[in-house]
Amino acid sequence: MALMYGPVAAAQDTSAASGNGSGTQTTSTSNAAPEKKNAAADKDKKSAKNLAQVNVTGIRASLESAQTLKQNADQIVDSITAVDINALPDRSVTETLQRISGVTIDRFISPNDPDHPSSEGSNVTIRGLTMVGTLLNGGDSFSSNSGRGLSFEDVPAELMAGVDVYKNPNAEIIEGGIGGTVDLRTRMPFDAPGQQVGFSTGVNEGDIAEKSKPSASFLYSNRWKTEDFGEFGALVDVSYSELASQTDGIQLEPFTLRTDSAALAGTDFKQVYVPGGAQWRTLDFNRRRIGISGAFQWRPTNNLEFYSRFMRSIYNMDWLERGAIYADSAYDMTPAPGTTFKYNSQGIFQSGWMNSDANYTNYAGSADGVAMNGDTRYQVQTTVTTDWTNGFKYNLNDHMILSGSLQLVKSTSDETDFTIFDETYLPGLYLNTVGNHGMPSITVNPASFVNNPANYFWSAAMDHFENETGMERAGRLDLEDDFADNKWLQYVKFGIRYTDRDENNNSSPYNWGAITEPWATISSSPSGLASLNSYLTNESSLYSFSNFYRGEVNVPSLYFPNAALAESYPAAYAILKTIEASGGWKPVQLTPGDINDQGEKTKTAYGILYFGNDDALGIPFDGNIGVRLVRTDVSTSGEGVYPNLAAYSGLSDPLQTAYYGQYFPIAANQHYQNALPSFNLRFKLTDDLQWRIAASKAMTRPDFSELQPYLQLGATLNTNNTEVLRWSGTAGNPNLKAMVADQYDTALEWYFAPTGLLYTTAFFKDIGNYIAEETETEVYNNQQWAITRPYNIGNGMIRGAEIGYNQFFDFLPGALKGLGMQANFTYVHSEGGVNTATNPYSGQTVPGFSLPMTGLSPRSFNLAGMYQYGPWQARVAYSYRSRYLLTTSDASTSLPTWSDNYGQLDASIFYKIDSHLQVGLTLNNLTNSTVKTLMGPTSYGNGVVDYHLYPRGWFTTDRRAELVLRGTF
Question: Cα–Cα distance between 344 and 361 in angstroms, integer?
């Protein structure tokens, strides 16, 4: 507890990771807490007080505060603090987290969508695991659109006082992350000695989007003493920020093994690999993030404190995409008549004029052309997350503290996704897969063909929506007892916690339907197709892809449906239905399989003992040992549906009578218990050198999507529809249990200066109950069905090491002493994970092969140069992660998809005008980095596997700059 008395003024809020063992209860009640009487605590207390007297600000103060948190924590923790108000090192929480060793982020709008990168990061992983626990001020928090955890991109960075990452948590910390736990800390009024006023304002712009967007934040905090009612404190912190960016991308369709004469023509190869097509897209992204944080503290006596803390974040995101894709149904592109393909020495396609195997007699261009779809896609999403916590802390006597809280978390998310397609058949298309900078380029001949709307027709539409609501009510009670003057025992803590969570998630399928197609025609057109020059002539226009990929990639202009039409869902249906074929696209309707309502209750109890001795082993040591006992109760109800065979007259009457698409109820209620022991030991080898040992067991509950109580049964018929060849189905699994991990860490830490640290950590995780899909035989209605659903069947192992270094070079003369450096490197190795692959020719599922766990980069590092001297401070930071698996089966390609090596350089520079104001510039993606994705291996069944990793996509996004003015009074 000694730290709670000192560094609060310098670090704004250090209680989250302080040596008092309070874990994540950051209620800032430090002055009311009883003082520990042991010598080690007294020593830490004196050091903390000395630190608080040093008047430092900016980068140096934040680094010093974070280092103090790490050194005095009762477990292994890494922190980033914002000593200055609204001054986290990056403009988003996600990008801030990536600066911590072992923490990496994705560069995609959604982690499950590798076709749409983002200019801001998403999806935090710790030591390669996506199963990350997310806390806000020590309490559980979540976003309804991200499963179990919090979408860090939803949370305004301006509201944060700091971020703590626990990689091997002790028994006090709320369970939920086998990768680790991230705790976001907001400010409290008692963190500061008196009134605080802070603000920031700025404007940012990307060099591709060329749209200026504002940001602003304001904080007011104060505390007042009264004679009769004790001391009061109040704080309000609001933020607003917008961002606009543009992403250009070009992609190749899957490469397939070819042995046909057309593909082999002009070569000596026996087999070659040819891409099934290509696509290019431009995406305009807009984001608005609003946050408000409020806090009230009341200390009626020195021994009693009440607090109320509130935070709400509102995240609005929309993006508009114009995408072009050419491919045929089996990826069997052939050389255009009179031409041959060019290959490299391995038989991999390099360039050639292409022709599709598709040929529709009612469309003249299809005979010697390539089917090209142009889509205008608009997605809009709003996520609102509210967290309200009320609590107290009471000093029962000079050695016992009782604390408790009640918490309400509610999150809602609404998403609408609507796409309109047009189509053409390009008579001459040349693909070069190794063009400028190794990226593909596309040429059309004649070039004027794409400029004529008569060569296009209205093709299809697709819609999808999600409405999700999650609510959790939680209560906790904790008792701490101090062993005064005991040479071995410091204190003990016990606690209980109860949660009641409801999840109501509605998610429709992606509902594709034809408007007009060669096989879905209308009578009013001679070709049966609704051409763009004759139908809805004001609803499409030519898009030029000007300066595409900053002019480095050549792609043709195309006609696309207008943005205003895609943005007007569902009103667009009234327009499109006037031209569409009979039975064409209709707006999606929810079915019982799209509705997922679940309830979950947890009961938790923990106990933890803190101990230490300065003399018994010849060197001072301390530590803690504890256990967290968790019971999880799950209640779900849903439906199963049989196939509808009544319409197939060739089947027997009993089959038609038994299966007519009827629903039947499914209900599941289960519970499971987990015991989560933890042990932490620290040896203080010298005043500056310490060695830590940590062991614990962690758990992560299944996502609610995996628990969904819905069963879709199906029947595969023969070509004559007279016999059922296969009975199958897909389902969620409400009987899944939590994944667990036995984890071990050891760390050596050398604190050689107030802002000087060198550390290394080795870690090992043994993961059990890993969740993976498997097909098993189940019986319904006396019939055996092959049901594919998730099971707890897998095991995994992760091991690795981290090394980190921080220092300001105070020994240098004059202004050079303002130089500093931060660096860290992480190596992770994993085993476990099996992919179920899809044959790109037949579409049939084939046996898989071993793959690493998703989200795990074997190597990652951060390197930052810092400078703070006089009124100037600056930072240049480079972050890198190596290739990692994004998904075992991408929705577009059905292949494993990887994100290739990626590094990005960011920078900032600030000038302090006076003691209250500073102005600065922040810069992102100075390296103009390319997000590159890969695909493969490809399994064809019968033991035939193509182990090549083929290029899938190249994406570039804005270099961003923001001019910022900050003030503190």
Answer: 36
CA angle 692, 697, 700 (to 5 degrees): 125
Q: Scanning the structure block, which residue is given the tokens 């069963």?
A: 711
Nearest by Cα to 120 from 794, 644, 904: 904
**Cα–Cα distance for residue pair 754/261, rounded to 1 Å:** 72
DSSP run (H or E) holding 264 = helix 261-264
What is the rounded distance in angstroms from the CA atom of residue 13 to the CA atom of residue 26? Answer: 8
Q: Residue 652: enclosing H or E segment and its boundaries? A: none
Tell whether pTM > 0.85: yes
DSSP secondary structure letters along 511-550: EEEESSBTTB--TTSTTSS-BTTTSSTTSEEEE--TTGGG
Beta bridge partners of 772: 791
* pLDDT tens per residue across span 225-280: 999 999 999 999 999 999 999 999 999 999 989 999 999 999 999 999 999 999 99
Q: Give the number of other Cβ atoms within 10 Å of residue 515's Cβ.
A: 26
Q: Are 723 and 660 in contact (CB under 8 A)?
A: no
How many other C-beta atoms are found inside a 10 Å radius of the C-beta of residue 67?
21
Looking only at the bridges linking them, the beta strands covering 180-186 and 132-136 are: parallel
**Left if phi > 0, otherwise alpha if psi is -120 to 50, otherwise beta: which for 158?**
alpha
Give per-residue pLDDT as tens, 325-367.
987 666 678 898 889 999 999 999 999 999 876 666 666 666 6
Q: Are 73 and 92 in contact (CB under 8 A)?
A: no
Alpha-carbon span 778 to 836, nearest angstrom: 20
Q: What's the distance, CA 408 to chain centroid?
A: 23
With a CB cutoff of 8 Å and minimum separation 6, the contacts of 564 are none
Pairing of strands 663-684, 689-700: antiparallel
Contacts (Cβ under 8 Å, ≥6 apart) of 551:
none
Instruction: Say if residues 173 and 182 touch (Cβ distance below 8 Å).
Output: no
Q: What HEC string does 285-326 produce? A: EEEEEEEEEEEEEEEEECCEEEEEEEEEEEEEEEEEEEEEEE
As separate numbers, helices (DSSP H) first and strands (DSSP E) second, the chain gives 8, 49
Q: Are 418 and 376 a contacting pair, CB within 8 Å?
A: no
Q: Which amino acid is at 648?
A: Y
Strand residue runs (E) in 103-229: 103-108, 117-126, 132-136, 139-140, 160-166, 180-186, 196-206, 212-226
Q: Whose CA is closest to 632, among 668, 607, 602?
A: 602
Q: Which residue has the tokens 């939680």?
A: 474
3-state secondary structure of 653: helix
Other Cβ atoms closer than 10 A to 120? 23
Query: Do 209 and 219 contact (CB within 8 A), yes or no?
Result: no
Using CA atoms, how far apart are residues 434 and 553, in angstroms rounded to an integer?
A: 11
Q: Per DSSP, which regions of 754-895 are E strands?
A: 756-780, 783-808, 819-831, 837-838, 845-846, 859-869, 872-881, 884-887
**Separation of alpha carbons 493 and 588, rounded Å:** 53
Q: How far, in Å, CA of 927 to CA of 960, rounded?
A: 11
For the segment 546-594, what is each residue's pLDDT rounded down to a tens digit?
Answer: 889 998 898 999 999 999 999 999 899 999 999 999 889 999 999 888 8
User: Cα–Cα distances in Å, from 741 out to 80, 794, 824?
Assistant: 26, 12, 25
Q: Which CATH superfamily is domain 2-332+376-421+463-508+598-968 in?
A: TonB-dependent receptor, beta-barrel domain (2.40.170.20)
188, 295 in Cβ contact below 8 A? yes
CB neighbourhood size of 524 (10 A): 10
Provide the CA 967 distance to its chain's centre, in angstroms: 32
